[in-house]
Automatic annotation (TrEMBL):
Its EC number is 3.2.1.21. It catalyses: Hydrolysis of terminal, non-reducing beta-D-glucosyl residues with release of beta-D-glucose. GO terms for cellular component: cytosol. It comes from Halostreptopolyspora alba. GO terms for biological process: cellulose catabolic process. This is Beta-glucosidase. Substrate binds at Q31, H132, N176, Y306, W426, E433, W434. Belongs to the glycosyl hydrolase 1 family. The active site is at E177 (proton donor), E379 (nucleophile).
């Protein structure tokens, strides 16, 4: 896991990106749409999960979210006013196919039809993601992602969506963060459907990857779109140079990064990871032909980045104040004995570590270890306690500084040779932030959840100017 050296970030002079560099903003259907019972939409695992007491902070649910289902025209106008010309959003599977199989719901397809037309009329390129965690509940009742049939159903859904929108949408992402869907959903239970079955989580991870490959094949049978997948890859840093810490980092890196990257790029699961997991599963769910399907050629890789992870082989001798709250790597299957560390003193208001150098590190590593593909930073952002001032503005200086440092880190990776083609801020709108409910705000647009009024934050104005010019001013003049 040696990381190549890269240039120091440029801070004293302005930073210029290539003229064809993509600037966008991202959202996810369940987090912003609301209207979860409207126009024939089916029930998703997140509808079921949020209805269970104690699962979500404050007992929040996916309604009304940011009411985007009814206010999409207003939100497209916001994007246009800011000058952001690429929009990454997800399609809600249960809105298009309410039970996860069978005929499409015309009203669901009509909504995305209108959204795509609205975006194009505004000069904004649509970048849809087919799956951002909202599995139709009937498919979960039949076994969920640990069941192979779910991957087959996903390919059918992908074909339906592409057949309707593919005449206008050219760039598609099949999956968003399959690591989260598999391991937070089926191992730690922090996310829907809330199961704690490590062996099932590994089967889910494989079937998510298989679903990606099958969906890519199904879409390409209908045309020649640009197809990618979005992973939340993460630098894994050992606490020090001890054998135990280095091996802990290897194991966590294996299940967080290489368990997904190696099948996609090389058509195989890493030998060391298979050995690490031998006591949990023999990977008997991998059938002949699966890995070539998963390794079907990609046109791009989406990279979601928030922070690295710091790990130790043991908590012995470590100041308890340096430990992450849960202290152990329970989110990483097979790594329950690994100690997780806080890493940096610079934290977001959500208490996530701030480390822009980790983004450079990850992009350069991908370029070296998994070469040949365009890379897009498809999520990067931070939650801070935003408030509307007496003058009606939201002066989120912390978020603006966070984004500037990470945009600069992206440019540093470019200078080091990483083929980075775009940056999508997370997120356009304050929204339902999964298990955190509405307690965290990531948006560059403030949403008043009682009135649904929108206010472009200072970070939104700043990001829009960056999107229009492709120029990041020198530090101190931003």
């Amino acid at each position: 896991m040696d990381t190549p050296a890269w240039p120091e970030p440029e801070t004293t002079t302005e930073t210029r990106f290539p003229t064809d560099f993509v600037w966008g903003a991202g959202t996810a259907a369940f987090q912003i749409e609301g209207s979860t019972r409207a126009d024939g939409r089916g029930v998703s695992i997140w509808d079921t999960f949020t209805a269970q007491p104690g699962r979500i902070h404050g007992g929040d649910t996916g309604d009304p979210a940011a009411d985007h289902y009814r206010r999409y025209h207003e939100d497209v106008a916001l994007l246009r006013s800011m000058g952001v010309d690429h929009y990454r959003f997800s399609l809600a599977w249960p809105r298009i196919q309410p039970t996860g199989s069978g005929p499409a719901n015309p009203a669901g397809l009509d909504f995305y039809d209108r959204l795509v037309d609205d975006l194009l009329a505004a000069g904004i390129q649509p970048w849809p993601t087919l799956y951002h965690w909202d599995l139709p509940q009937p498919l979960e009742d039949a076994g969920g992602w640990p069941a192979r049939d779910t991957a087959l159903r996903f390919a059918e859904y992908a074909a339906i969506a592409h057949q309707r929108l593919g005449d206008r949408v050219t760039a598609w992402s099949t999956m968003n963060e399959p690591w989260v869907a598999a391991f937070l959903g089926y191992a730690s239970g922090q996310h829907a459907p809330g199961r704690r079955e490590p062996a099932a989580a590994l089967a889910a991870a494989h079937h998510l990857l298989l679903g990606h490959g099958l969906a890519a094949t199904a879409i390409r049978e209908q045309g020649t779109p640009t197809i990618g997948i979005t992973l939340n890859t993460q630098p894994i840093r050992p606490n020090d140079g001890t054998v135990a810490d280095i091996d802990a980092a290897r194991r966590v890196d294996g299940i967080r990064n290489r368990f997904f990257l190696d099948p996609l790029y090389h058509g195989r699961y890493p030998d060391d990871v298979r050995a690490d997991l031998a006591g949990i599963t023999d990977l008997g769910f991998v059938r002949e032909g699966d890995l070539p399907t998963i390794a079907a050629p990609l046109d791009f890789l989406g990279v979601n980045y928030y922070s690295p992870a710091w790990v130790a082989g043991s908590a012995e001798g470590i100041d308890p104040r340096l430990l992450e709250p849960d202290g152990v790597g329970a989110d990483y299957v097979g790594c329950d004995d690994v100690t997780m560390l806080r890493g940096t003193e610079d934290r977001t208001d959500q208490d996530w570590a701030v480390d822009p150098g980790g983004l450079t590190e990850m992009l350069v590593r991908l370029a070296v270890d998994y070469p040949g593909l365009p890379l897009y930073v498809t999520e990067c952002g931070a939650s801070y306690r935003d408030e509307v001032g007496s003058d009606g503005t939201v002066r989120d200086t912390d978020r603006r500084a966070f984004l500037a440092s990470h945009v600069r880190a992206t440019h540093t990776a470019l200078r080091a040779g990483a083929p980075v083609k775009g940056f999508f801020v997370w997120t356009l709108l304050d929204n339902f932030e999964w298990a955190y409910g509405y307690s965290e705000r990531f948006g560059i647009v403030y949403v008043d959840y009682e009135t649904q009024a929108r206010i472009v934050k200072d970070s939104g104005h700043w990001y829009g100017e960056l999107a229009k010019t492709g120029v990041l001013p020198a530090t101190g003049s931003e």
